[in-house]
Amino acid sequence: MFNNRWMIGLLLLLLVTSDPFAFAAPAPSPASRTSKPTAAQRKREAARRKAEKKRAAKKAAIEKQRAAKAKAAKRQRIKDGKPLLYVYSYNLKTGEPLPETHITVQDVNARPNKKPKLNKATDTKRARVSKGLPVGSYWATAARIGYFSSDTLFFQHKEDEDTVKMALYPETRVTFSVTDSLTQRPVSANIVFRNAENKKILQTTSDSIRTLIAVLFDDRVPFYTVEATAIDYFPYRDTITRPELFSDIVMSPREVKSFVLHNIYFATGKTHILDSSEPALDELYRFLVLRPSQQIRIVGHTDNVGSDRSNQTLSEGRCREVKQAMVERGIAPERIEVEGRGERDPIVPNDTEELRQMNRRVEIVLL
Fold it and tell me: Which domains can be identified in the chain, with CATH numbers?
C-alpha cells in the first residue's frame, strides 16, 4: 500500500517538473498570428501603386505644360507690348467678391466716343476680368445692380499681370408711399430728399394712383431730410437717421383738427428745446402767421419711462417751451394754450425704443 502511494506521488512529480512552463501564458490564438499576403494580393497592391504613380506623372505633365503655355503667353504679351491687366470687383462693406459686375476700362487720352478698351462683366469664379492692354494711362469704372457706381479710378498699366480692384458700396433701397392721414389714400405731392450736405438726391412727384416710390440711401451718410408739399395739406418734413426704418409719408389735410409737430427735439429728460428743432419751430410760426385768427393748443406726450408725475411735469414744461418759442417770434400768447398729457395717450405700445419714440410727441390742436 505504501509503495503504491509512493509510486503515484513520484509520477505526479515527474509530470509537473517535466514541463516547467506548463502553467505560463497561453499560446497566441491563430487569429493573432500575421499571415503573409498571397501572390494575388501582392499583384493587386503593385498594380495600385503603379496606377497612382502614373496618375501623378500625368498630373505633373499637365501642370508643366500649363505653366509652359502661360510662360509662353506672357513672353508673347510682353513682345506684343500688351501686358495682362486683371480687374477685380468687391463689396466695400463686406469685402466679398462681386461677380457679374460690369467693368469699363478706357485710355485716358481716348476720344469720348471711342470704344472702351475693356467692356465686360466679371466672372462668377473670381469676380474678375482680364485683358492684354498696351502700357499707358487708363481709367476704370464698375457698376452693378443694387450697388452705387464706383468712383472713377485712374491708374498706370505698365507691367504684366497688373491688378486693379474696384470697390462698390451696396444701396439701401427703400420704398414708401404718400398717403392722407385720414383716408389712407394716395396723395399727389412733391417730394424732395436731401443728404446731410443739403444736396438733393431725389426729387419726385407722387400721384393718386402710384402708391410706392423707391429711394436709394447710403447708410454711410449720417442723416437725410425729406420734405413733401401738396395742395390743401400741411407741409411734411422729417429727418431720417435710420433709412431701414423709413416707410411712409403721411400728409395731414389742412381741415384736420390736429397734427403732430415733427422734428421737435428736447434734451433727454428735460424741457430745453435743442437747436436742431429750429426748422420745426419756424414751420409752426409760418403756419400761425398765415392764419392770424387761428388759435391752437400745444399738447405734450411722453412714453411710459419714469413715474406718472415726472412724465406729467415733463410734458407740461415742454409745451410751455414751445409756446415761449412762438411768443419770442411775435405770436400773441393768448392765441396759444398748453396741455401736458404725460404718458396717458400713447398711440402705439411702449414695447421698444422705436415705439416709445413715436409716443414722445408734440401735438398741435386747432381751436
Answer: 79-170 (2.60.40.1120), 171-256 (2.60.40.1120), 257-367 (3.30.1330.60)
